[in-house]
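Changelog entry: the ATP-dependent Zn protease record was regenerated in this release. Current contents:
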Amino acid sequence: MSQTAINLIAISVFLMTLSTLLGPLVHLSPTIPALVTVAFLGIATLDNFSLQGKGGTIVLDWLARFSPGYRERIIHHEAGHFLVAHLLGIPVTGYTLSAWEAWKLGQPGQGGVILEDSEIAKQLEKGKITVSMCDRYCNIWMAGIAAEMLVFNSAEGGGDDKAKLNQFLAALGFEEKVFEQKQRFYLLQAKNLIQENWEGYQALVEAMRERVAVEECIGIISRRGAEVQREGK
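Regenerated structure tokens:
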């Protein structure tokens, strides 16, 4: 059973327990929490057997979005991926900021930055990937966590990013015992890139919050970088 399905079942149990305790005080019909519980359990079952965790992720993401703090973390996380990919020369072709948007585009998780991966695909087909390409993608994968840590002093997202990095390292022949060391290394690299381009990052966050198109986001990063250079002279 997926972790998402387990979370949905836990929510169902909590709702039923809460309604049992508080229902009589607020004159809540027992039918309502029962229907809600059945709905959550149904979603959990469908999610586990048919949707491979995505259905439950969408529901949990929708519930979490009632929290402004959660929405802000998603935006700052994805802006970190976007900025570092752009700085390292990997073209960004799109981005999503919710599990529903990601699901419609066939992407995992609560959101994501879509990259133009043709160059690394060519190298993988040849069975030889350059050190430069390896470093760039590893930095990009850790950039979301780096951004959250810089802004919020902690990271709540990034499980999928770490999994991608670990799978990539395993495919390159690295042993599992070095995964955490590599994560820390690339996390520090990504942090430095974001800090060195902090004004551009902040401008990008504002643009993504307004759902600005990718091309305009790139223009905003470039303009802000040029402004900083002029101010530094």
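The two ends are 58 Å apart (CA to CA).
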